[in-house]
Amino acid sequence: MTVPGTGRTTGRITPTRNAHLALCCALLLAGLGASTHDVWPTALACGLFAALLVCWVGCRVAPVPSVRAGFAGVLTVGEPATSVVGLTNPGTSWTRPAIIVHRLCKPLVEPVRCHVEPLPPGNRVAAPQIRIPTQRGLLTHSHVDLECPGPFGLFVRRHHLIHRQEILVLPENVRPLPLPALAGGATGARSPSPDDELRGVREWRAGDSPRHVHWRSTARTGALTVVERGEPKGGSLLIVVGGTWGDPEYEGSLATATATGCAALGRGSWVALFVKTDASKPAAFVELDERTARDVVGRLDSAFLPDDRDLSRLATKVRPGTGVLLACDGPARTDERWLTLLDTAVLAAGGTFVGRAPS
Prior knowledge:
CATH class of the largest domain: Mainly Beta
CATH architecture of the largest domain: Sandwich
Strand content: 25-35%
Number of helices: 9
Order of helices and strands: EHHEEEEEEEEHEHEEHEEHHEHHE
Helix content: 25-40%
Distance between the termini: 31 Å
Largest sheet: 6 strands, mixed
Structural class: alpha/beta
Radius of gyration: 33 Å
């Protein structure tokens, strides 16, 4: 469970609609008693004023439970997450019923709203709620709104707490692009190369190239046999990032690129991001590893498309045979001039421009 830091709280007592109605009735009765010189309307008005005062004091002196809120485990877009709201009664008397709303500083997860019954002195309770994150990102704090109704519901004591905590929502787990397609381009399968990993021999199938026939095995068994090779382990993948945080196309494309990068890391490949987070600074190469790749992507905000000077630096990291994958939003996908510059820079460095990761 995420342990929140020190919170800042502000509280105020506000009248409800019933209190406004009671106040209007008291004023009308007081006016009626003054105009008719009748004691009963005046007595009723005084009783209503006294009831309002007693209810306000009761709401003011009632103990307010202390609140802690957070999420259990790691948050991932599209996967259920448990939000835990804990309350403790530090006072010497029972608390009033409370309504708690836990919301994040960004709309990554739907707000959690729960009703808590009165707590005896020194008691504590936890109210878990299941929520599904809808957006990735990094949060630095969350908000907790606490409402404690007073007697007869005439007044409500409201507290707003800000919990200083870090909550990271990781990108959605999606199916990665097939790694053979990365080695041969966006069109799909490629022809086996002598540098590929040798998997063994098998019988000849229609469509196999005569260059891959294993003649020794063919002569020994009398059946046409070919060498079967797989994609070599290792290699490298560079993910170029550019788009607006929260854009559905950008987020979907980034999730696919992240899944593909993690799959490549699992095969021993070198994987890095090429991202420009500040328009006044050059784009940076961020190398990824299996343990922190999704965390790094989860912390990304909006990213600018690398400019001409940034693309000229690709040759420093793009080695011959490196696959370059683009994770971007709609405007970048339709910018033909920029896509041509990217393709030219990748080809000049000896790499392969795979294309745009689908959303």
